[in-house]
Design goal:
It is a single chain. The longest helix has 26 residues. It is built from 5 helices and no strands. Helix 3 runs antiparallel to helix 4. By secondary structure, it is mainly alpha-helical.
Length: 155
């Protein structure tokens, strides 16, 4: 395990705990959905997502707990600008979603987040972002039937 700075280790642990809490909320909300009497009721997918979310959250919290005793203090400046940039990217996603559709808005959010967090190759990030957004759109909109905003181009 690489030695991280103390701030990153704390943030990783906090994010893991927040993911775990979100998983609990998701399970509680999923259990309140009405039972349809079929094997695959409406609560199945949210519970699966919650289990995966909890597993990742626990993994991040454990990793942070292991790294924190060896973490170094880092006095970098400018970290808050990345947080502001990420919040701005999320707000832009919400504003652009009904205008340009899910695929383009999600691609923009993915690219902005990756670049703000230090991704090295911009064109690769763009390709991954578009592929991920397109795959999510196809699975949810076309296969499952949950409509996502398609925008003026139909995707």
């Amino acid at each position: 395990m690489a030695v991280q700075d103390r701030r990153t280790a704390l943030a990783t642990g906090l994010f893991g705990v927040l993911m775990l809490l979100a998983a609990v909320v998701l399970v509680v909300d999923a259990m309140r959905l009405p039972d349809q009497g079929s094997a695959m009721g409406p609560a199945v997918m949210p519970v699966i997502v919650a289990v995966l979310l909890a597993a990742v959250g626990i993994g991040l919290a454990v990793r942070s707990g292991r790294q924190l005793p060896r973490a170094e203090r880092d006095e970098r400046t400018g970290a808050w600008w990345r947080v502001v940039g990420l919040v701005a990217a999320l707000l832009a996603f919400a504003a652009l979603l009904p205008v340009v559709g899910y695929v383009l808005a999600a691609t923009g959010l993915f690219v902005a987040a990756a670049l703000l967090l230090g991704a090295p190759r911009r064109w690769v990030v763009l390709a991954y972002g578009w592929a991920l957004a397109a795959a999510v759109f196809l699975v949810f909109d076309r296969l499952i039937g949950l409509s996502l905003p398609s925008g003026p181009w139909g995707f």
